[in-house]
Every structure is written in C-alpha cells, then in structure tokens.
Design a protein that fits this description.
Blueprint lengths: L1 H13 L5 H11 L3 H17 L3 H4 L3 E5 L2 E6 L7 E5 L2 H12 L5
Antiparallel strand pairs: 1-2, 2-3
Length: 104
C-alpha cells in the first residue's frame, strides 16, 4: 500500500498545473472538421435514401418459394406485390422494382 501511494504522488506531481481541458480545446480549434462533416452529410443522405425504399417502408414477408426467395407484401401473389431472387437481398431488390411498376 505504501508503494502505491508513493507512485500515485510521483505521477500526480508530474501533472501539477496541467490543464487537460485547455489542451483538448486547442487541438479541436486547430483541427479542420470540414472534410469529415461532408462525409457525414453524404452518408446521411445515402441512409435517408435507403430508408425510402419500398422494401424498407412496407417490410414485405420474406419466404422461400421453391428454389428462390420471395419478398411478398399482401396475402398472396395475385393480390399483393412480390419480388423474387436467389438471395433475400435480390428478392428485396426485385420487390422494389415490382412496387414501382405500372399496371398495363
């Protein structure tokens, strides 16, 4: 216990008069955040765009249909909107395309 106190006192005496907050403020003031701010803006815009996809907004049911994945919104294929693909991601991509198709 005595050794601990001696080490603590020695380290503490080295930092006597040290103003850590002023050092952090000086570093932050001199650091250019503009590049990082632009990256954050771009990433936010990408995320906002992804959140507008029909597969995100409407959360279709994802299930296997034979050897493909099916993303289905509705009670059945006749009345709902469905997308198919070899992976869940491909089925969701196809669902997004199908959602925007105009009936002919």
């Amino acid at each position: 216990m005595d050794t601990y106190q001696a080490v603590y006192d020695a380290v503490r005496s080295r930092f006597n008069g040290f103003d850590g907050q002023a050092l952090i403020e000086r570093i932050a003031y001199n650091f250019n955040f503009s590049h990082h701010t632009e990256i954050i803006k771009q990433e936010f815009m990408i995320a906002a765009g992804e959140m507008q996809r029909p597969s995100v907004l409407y959360k279709p049911t994802l299930l296997l249909d034979g050897n493909q994945w099916c993303a289905l919104y509705g009670n059945n294929l006749q009345d709902g909107v469905a997308g198919f693909g070899n992976s869940p991601a491909k089925a969701m991509e196809d669902f997004n395309k199908e959602w925007n198709k105009v009936l002919e």
